[in-house]
Amino acid sequence: MTEFPETGRVVSAARDIAAPAAEIFELIADPAQQPRWDGNDNLAEAAGGQRVRGVGDVFTMTLTRGGVRENHVVEFTEGRLIAWRPSEVGKPQPGHLWRWELEPLGAAGTRVTHTYDWSQLTDEQRITRARANTPERLRSSLDRLAGLAEQGS
Fold first, then answer.
1. How far apart (Å, rounded) are the C-alpha atoms in residues 126 and 129?
2. What's the rounded Cα separation, in Å, for the pair 135 and 114?
3. Which CATH superfamily is domain 2-150 in?
4. Considering the entire predicted model, what is its pTM?
5. Of 72, 76, 79, 94, which residue is 20 to 30 A from 29 by alpha carbon distance?
6. Which helix (H) or strand (E) holds 44?
7. In the chain, what are the domain boundaries?
8. How many degrees, rounded to 5, is the angle at CA 50 between CA 119 and CA 85?
9. Structural contact between residues 59 and 72, judged by C-beta atoms closer than 8 angstroms
10. With 0-12 CB in 10 A as exposed, 13-18 as middle and 19+ as buried, what is 89?
């Protein structure tokens, strides 16, 4: 596992996972799978049939505290990169971003980098929660994701 120091308001962690990038990407790009590997225990459920296919897609997620978030996909390369900006339903995006980058390491391994970028966060009420997203918390999601991918999900 690799840790990256916080640069301003960007936090990242990386891990090599013994599974093909395509299999790992399916767990990330299908919102219904995300609660299974969420290391923040923040995601309760997402309806099936929302598999992300490109920039501009929007998927919804119900949080463990009952709120619903729209997630606006802003970066996407099939099998390699996905990033989204969450917001409350029908409200402007407050400026934080979740990014997943996958780099194949041979036929059956992948380096996965998970980044939380809150450099454009404008909602002061979210700052405390944003600061709580440390490399350790990101690593928790990576570890859970690895557990699922390495056992064939």
1. 5
2. 9
3. START domain (3.30.530.20)
4. 0.90
5. 94
6. strand 43-45
7. 2-150
8. 10
9. no
10. exposed
